[in-house]
């Protein structure tokens, strides 16, 4: 077994809360990890780096600063390998888990359903079994607005019927159902399902952001790649919907707001003994059309985004946005950013990192060598290579 642990630093008091973040090197996971570090949590990230780069973790440490950065520990682990994951449970006592790890490309899930079912479901079951065995029964799970399918009306409230249209969506729905069964069987579990709408934007520093591999599936990463010259034009999937300008309408939410939403959910888990298994939407409650979003990005980057109108994309809903009252009322959380802030921050990230993290090695900060020395020192100290 090539068990690769990087304990980023070894500070932090024994009394602070320790959170396991699966998929913490990914887009939403990296922003949330940073938020948790800044709030003083100790964070253990496990990620297979299947759809992310270790550079993202390095930058999270850098942004967290010399004190809070001491509290991040990173393991390159595939959670489908239960023995590897168990090593983490042996090394740390987790107070709660935020479970982001999973594959998320809808089209790929249609082409490779078994790959999606295996990765997303087996990894999750391994995680839940270990949580139960090691007595950590507080969970925040990354669900998705995809569980609303093509909603009959908007805004979507959490009690809408669930309907999924592809294998990816079914993995989210199956995991939601598993958590409901788990909590029913053992009332010690406290579980929050966060249904994200359409995450966009980046950390305002421009150091971390979304970096999809291959052709982007989602609107804003595609727009971003047109703006930096990696792609020639955006294809708009349909302008004949019954919406304000005929293009699809979505609830875009700044990734920084998602990060604070996870922090609010954790607080709820710690403070509310009868949370049971509860779903919350994380959205802004506002619907923005594809063309409105493109126009906002054009304002942010000062460039024209060439586009071509094409047929509708199969499976797309015309209009989806969140009812936000439940999260506001029960989590005390509300999204703060509008589409201009989302596009401003996404462009800041894109213009500084036009090729994402992968061409980033030349722009590491001057203290990189010192950082690497600290990391290797701690890795030796931990002696977890087997
Ligand atoms: P992401 O791909 O950037 O992050 C997911 C991370 O999980 C990646 O770093 C990947 O390497 C890791 N991972 C995947 N399988 C793993 C495994 N078996 N073991 C360990 N790590 C593994 O995606 P994201 O946008 O940050 O999404 C995070 C979560 O939120 C996912 O579960 C996704 O389905 C969900 N979600 C995302 C969106 C969205 O539009 N971005 C919307 C709703 C829900
Ligand atoms: C938004 C709008 C497209 C790309 C997906 C998943 C969902 C969730 C979020 C994970 C639609 C249009 C897009 C393009 C376009 N992810 N579009 N040209 O489909 O709302 O949700 O991501 O859980 O599960 O399904 O997001 O960004 O793909 O599309 O015109 O190149 O942009 O038709 O109207 P979607 P999206």
Entry summary:
Helices cover 41% and strands 16% of the residues.
Describe this structure in words.
It catalyses: UDP-alpha-D-glucose = UDP-alpha-D-galactose. Its cofactor is NAD(+). The chain has twelve helices and 14 strands. It has 386 residues and is of the alpha/beta class. An eight-stranded mixed β-sheet has the order 1-4-3-2-5-6-7-12, sandwiched between helices. A two-stranded parallel sheet has the order 8-11. The protein has a two-stranded parallel sheet with strand order 9-14. The model is unreliable at 1-15 and 362-386 (pLDDT under 50). The longest helix is centred in the first third of the chain and has 21 residues, at 113-133. It has helices spanning 27-38, 54-68, 82-91, 106-111, 113-133, 167-185, 219-227, 255-271, 290-301, 325-331, 339-352, 368-382, and strands at 4-7, 18-22, 42-47, 72-76, 96-99, 138-144, 190-196, 198-200, 234-237, 249-250, 252-254, 277-282, 288-289, 307-310. 41% of the residues lie in helices and 16% in strands. The structure holds nicotinamide-adenine-dinucleotide and UDP-4-deoxy-4-formamido-beta-L-arabinopyranose. Nicotinamide-adenine-dinucleotide (NAD) is lined by residues 22-23, 25-29, 46-52, 78-80, 100-104, 119, 123, 142, 144, 196, 199.
């Amino acid at each position: 077994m090539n068990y690769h642990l990087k304990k980023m630093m070894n500070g932090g008091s024994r009394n602070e809360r320790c959170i396991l973040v699966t998929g913490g090197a990914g887009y939403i996971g990296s922003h949330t990890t940073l938020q948790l570090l800044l709030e003083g949590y100790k964070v253990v990230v496990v990620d297979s780096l299947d759809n992310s780069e270790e550079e993202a973790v390095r930058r999270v440490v850098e942004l967290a600063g010399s004190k809070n950065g001491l509290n991040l520990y990173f393991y390159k682990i595939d959670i489908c390998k239960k023995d590897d994951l168990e090593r983490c449970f042996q090394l740390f006592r987790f107070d709660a888990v935020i479970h982001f790890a999973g594959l998320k490309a809808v089209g790929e899930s249609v082409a490779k359903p078994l790959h999606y079912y295996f990765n997303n479901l087996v990894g999750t079951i391994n995680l839940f079994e270990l949580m139960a065995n090691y007595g950590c029964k507080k969970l925040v799970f990354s669900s998705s607005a995809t569980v609303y399918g093509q909603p009959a009306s908007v805004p979507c409230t959490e009690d809408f019927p669930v309907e999924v249209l592809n294998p990816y969506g079914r993995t989210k729905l199956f995991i939601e159902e598993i958590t409901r069964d788990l909590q029913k069987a053992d009332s010690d579990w406290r579980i929050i399902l966060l249904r994200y709408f359409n995450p966009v934007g980046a950390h305002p520093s421009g150091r971390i952001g979304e970096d999809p591999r291959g052709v982007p599936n989602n609107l804003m990463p595609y727009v971003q790649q047109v703006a930096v010259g990696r792609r020639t034009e955006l294809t708009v999937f349909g302008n004949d919907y019954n919406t304000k300008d005929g293009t699809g309408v979505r609830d875009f939410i700044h990734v920084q707001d998602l990060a604070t939403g996870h922090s609010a959910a954790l607080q709820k888990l710690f403070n509310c003994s009868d949370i049971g298994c509860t779903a919350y939407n994380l959205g802004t409650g506002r619907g923005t059309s594809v063309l409105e979003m493109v126009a906002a990005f054009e304002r942010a980057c000062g460039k024209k985004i060439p586009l071509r109108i094409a047929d509708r994309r199969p499976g797309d809903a015309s209009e989806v946005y969140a009812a936000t009252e439940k999260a506001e009322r029960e989590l005390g959380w509300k999204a703060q950013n509008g589409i201009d802030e989302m596009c401003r921050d996404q462009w800041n990230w894109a213009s500084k990192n036009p090729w994402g993290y992968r061409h980033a090695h030349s722009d590491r900060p001057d203290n990189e060598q010192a950082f690497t020395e600290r990391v290797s020192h701690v890795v030796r100290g931990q002696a977890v290579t087997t």
